[in-house]
Specification:
By secondary structure, the protein is of the alpha+beta class. The protein has helices at about 20-30, 65-80, 95-105, 110-120, 120-130, 145-155, 175-190, 275-285, 320-325, 330-340, 345, 375-380, 420-430, 445-455, and strands at about 15, 35-40, 55-60, 85, 135-140, 155-160, 170-175, 215-220, 225-235, 240-250, 260-265, 290-300, 305-310, 355-365, 370-375, 385-390, 395, 410-415, 435-440. The protein folds into 3 domains: about 15-110, Rossmann fold (3-Layer(aba) Sandwich), CATH 3.40.50; about 135-220, ATP-grasp fold, A domain (Dna Ligase, domain 1); about 225-440, D-amino Acid Aminotransferase, Chain A, domain 1, CATH 3.30.470. The radius of gyration is 22 Å and the shape is globular. The two termini are about 35 Å apart.
Length: about 450
């Protein structure tokens, strides 16, 4: 969508661990000689991989480190490849990527630090002990514990998985009735996610006990205020912030769902990015990080940042396209450059955009099978810069709490006047979206049975 940096490593590829086929196709399209991809075997027949060079694809069970390491070594030897670095774009593959990098002697955040970041209970404990502002949080595994914690906090709380990402199984609870409903869904849905890589057991460390995300959850205090996210680099003891975006919450979706990202972000009051850098350095060091590319979510409360999550990977979702359309800067290419050992390129900063932009999400109106999908009327709007579709006709749509990612049809990048209301912009776009979703299930009982079998 914008300017592309040169990145062609030929027989010294970056090994990208465990990403999804759409990201594989995207990276291969932009940098065909730059990466070797280790993928879960379930993606072998994915249509996104159909036209790719098979020599850059390695399928291995990502739950077993020794199997992955052995398969990687054989693949490198057979194809006469020498890895230049390790990269990871997905939370669920970060730990095994850290172990691979450690074994191969390549730069990557340590597995122990990654575990501390992936374990939301542990990250909050470490940050609290280090004086880093974050929500108070405790662990619960049943209704009684959740209600007791709610009463002890004496304010609104959020129930969420110990791991996971995005808005999946997040619940804002204002009273004990909300707690009861939320716990019922968590007790129902968490065991169904046992085969989901995001919910596999979190290993322990010298500082943290192992946790099973399918048996317990977090109860944390609700922090009011506008939410933001940013990408930053940690190198040689310094923080370099690459991008900052605001988050607009979707009023008609489940709690925590994103309606749009805004870029550049507009902070409240006297807060500036200068107030953020020292906190990011303190928070990343507390978790045990010394180097890497990070994504962080935070809330501004009473003029001060409160950290929600820190992950050693680039921001995903629609953010890379948003930044690239606005500035021509490629976050993904920059990250690949960094892990391949090109520090001079990895510290190149994106220019500030000359106008305001937003990436607006398009959600499916119901669950079922997509029978019609047309965005031509959206593209005719003069301030729409591009549309990215994640669904096609014939695809199945499932809604929360069964699936939180599946409802996203795509997103569009728009140029907006700072005075515009993004919710109104979304309404205008949504009115021009032509989509039909047919419900294939003749009864609620058959529908529930079908959804359960797909979990």
């Amino acid at each position: 969508m914008g300017r592309r940096m040169s990145l062609s490593l030929n027989h010294e590829p970056v090994v990208v661990v465990g990403t999804t086929p759409d990201y594989v196709a995207r990276i291969y399209r932009n940098y065909p000689q730059a990466a070797l991809f280790i993928l879960d075997p379930r993606f072998k027949d994915d249509s996104c991989l159909r036209d790719l060079d098979p020599s850059i694809l390695l399928f291995a069970p990502l739950d077993h480190f020794e199997d992955v390491l052995g398969s990687l070594k054989r693949h490198l030897s057979m194809n006469m490849l020498s890895p230049q670095g390790i990269a990871c774009f997905d939370c669920d593959s970060l730990i095994i990527a850290g172990h691979l990098a450690q074994h191969l002697g390549m730069p990557f955040p340590s597995p122990e630090a990654i575990i501390h970041a992936r374990n939301k209970l542990e990250s909050r404990r470490i940050w609290t002990e280090s004086g880093v502002a974050c929500p108070r949080a405790l662990l619960a595994s049943d209704l009684r514990e959740s209600q007791e914690l709610f009463c002890s906090v004496r304010k609104n709380v959020v129930l969420k998985p110990v791991s996971g990402s995005g808005s999946e199984l997040l619940f804002h609870c204002r009273d004990e009735t909300d707690i009861e409903r939320s716990v019922q869904i968590l007790e129902e849905q968490l065991p169904r996610r046992r085969s989901n890589p995001l919910f596999k057991p979190i290993p322990g460390t010298a500082r943290a006990v192992p946790l099973d995300p399918c048996r317990s959850w977090i109860v944390e205090e609700y922090v009011p205020g506008p939410e933001f996210s940013c990408d930053f680099l940690l190198q040689d003891g310094d923080i370099t912030i690459l991008r900052e975006t605001g988050k607009v919450k979707a009023p008609d979706q489940t709690f925590g769902s994103i309606l749009a990202y805004t870029f550049p972000s507009s902070y409240p009051g006297q807060f500036t990015v200068r107030d953020l850098s020292p906190l990011l350095l303190k928070a990343s060091r507390a978790l045990g990080f010394t180097w890497g590319h990070f994504m962080v979510d935070f809330i501004i409360q009473n003029g001060q940042p409160v950290l929600l999550e820190m992950t050693p990977r680039p921001g995903g979702d629609s953010i890379p396209d948003l930044v690239e359309v606005a500035t021509g800067y490629d976050l993904i290419g920059n990250y690949l450059n960094m892990v391949s050992g090109r520090p001079s390129n990895s510290t190149t900063l994106p220019p500030m955009p000359s106008e305001s932009f937003a990436s607006v999400h398009l959600y499916a109106p119901r669950e079922g099978i997509i029978s019609h999908l047309d965005v031509s009327q959206i593209l005719s709007l003069p301030w729409v810069k591009g549309v990215v579709l994640k669904k096609n006709m014939g695809d199945v749509v499932k809604l929360p709490p069964h699936d939180y990612d599946n409802r996203l049809l795509g997103y569009c990048i728009v140029s907006v006047d700072p005075s515009w209301d993004v919710v109104s912009v979304h309404r205008t776009i949504q009115q021009r979206l032509q989509v039909s979703v047919e419900n294939p299930w003749p009864s609620p009982w058959e529908r529930a049975a079908c959804l359960t079998s797909q979990d």
